[in-house]
Amino acid sequence: MTSTTPPGDGFYRPAEVAQKLRCSEWWVKEQARNRRIPYRWIGGSYLFTDEDIAEILRLFKREPLAPVPSIPTPRRSPEQPSDMESRRPGFRLTARVPRRARTATADNSARQRKEGH
């Protein structure tokens, strides 16, 4: 269905459409230039109607692929200790020896065994 709206208040320039759609003017012109969105070419410039803007919104609408399941979060009772509180006091993490140091140590012990025999 084509619109017979006369020129004037019913037409928007790319800058106005960009402001309404919260995108750049360049994007609006590029989409129109590549004929991805509806527009009017009047007087050598892109013009858009309210119907065009509604169609642009419809064209670029994205629906979720599947409903997002809600993940229940476990609730703890006030008297249940947190993870940090349940750890043993005095338990400390220790860093591993870096790989280069482990390799160097293994190489040195292999050399010493060869030299000793």
TrEMBL record:
Taxonomic lineage? Bacteria, Bacillati, Actinomycetota, Actinomycetes, Micromonosporales
Q: Say which species the protein is native to.
A: Phytohabitans maris
Q: Which InterPro entries does the entry mention?
A: HTH_17
The Helix-turn-helix domain is annotated at: 11-57
Q: Which branch of life, at top level?
A: Bacteria
Task: Please report the name of this protein according to its UniProt entry.
Answer: Helix-turn-helix domain-containing protein
The cross-references to Pfam families, in alphabetical order and at most eight, read: HTH_17
Q: Return the annotated region ranges for Disordered.
A: 66-117
